[in-house]
Amino acid sequence: MASIKFTTKDIFEQDFKIGFRGYDQDEVNDFLDDIMKDYDAYEAIIKELKGEIARLKAQAANAPRTAAPVADESEVLRTERASSATNFDILRRLNRLEKEVFGKQIIQESYE
């Protein structure tokens, strides 16, 4: 792949020596030749990337579509029962903790 010689900042900051009738024509031409090489390099990169994009799109279009496996209903029901049992256990534990923490406070307040 071709290498890029100038950045936008390099081009912007380029100064030419002033000769008898203006800028040195050879220096300007050399600079413009280098810029043209950069543009050729950019075009090569763009062409390469467009080719890769086209190749990947074609590959994605030709790839077999795999459907997600469908779980049978009995497996779904078992999972729901297990999670609801787990939720029930969590709620029961929370209830015990609340009774332990807040129950003692309620009993103390009623004696006062």
UniProtKB/TrEMBL annotation:
<keyword id="KW-0131">Cell cycle</keyword>
<comment type="subunit">
    <text>Forms polymers through the coiled coil domains. Interacts with PBP1, MreC and EzrA.</text>
</comment>
<comment type="function">
    <text>Divisome component that associates with the complex late in its assembly, after the Z-ring is formed, and is dependent on DivIC and PBP2B for its recruitment to the divisome. Together with EzrA, is a key component of the system that regulates PBP1 localization during cell cycle progression. Its main role could be the removal of PBP1 from the cell pole after pole maturation is completed. Also contributes to the recruitment of PBP1 to the division complex. Not essential for septum formation.</text>
</comment>
<keyword id="KW-0133">Cell shape</keyword>
<dbReference type="Pfam" id="PF05103">
    <property type="entry name" value="DivIVA"/>
</dbReference>
<keyword id="KW-0963">Cytoplasm</keyword>
<keyword id="KW-0175">Coiled coil</keyword>
<comment type="similarity">
    <text>Belongs to the GpsB family.</text>
</comment>
<feature type="coiled-coil region">
    <location>
        <begin position="32"/>
        <end position="66"/>
    </location>
</feature>
<dbReference type="GO" id="GO:0051301">
    <property type="term" value="P:cell division"/>
</dbReference>
<protein>
    <recommendedName>
        <fullName>Cell cycle protein GpsB</fullName>
    </recommendedName>
</protein>
<dbReference type="InterPro" id="IPR019933">
    <property type="entry name" value="DivIVA_domain"/>
</dbReference>
<keyword id="KW-0132">Cell division</keyword>
<dbReference type="InterPro" id="IPR007793">
    <property type="entry name" value="DivIVA_fam"/>
</dbReference>
<dbReference type="InterPro" id="IPR011229">
    <property type="entry name" value="Cell_cycle_GpsB"/>
</dbReference>
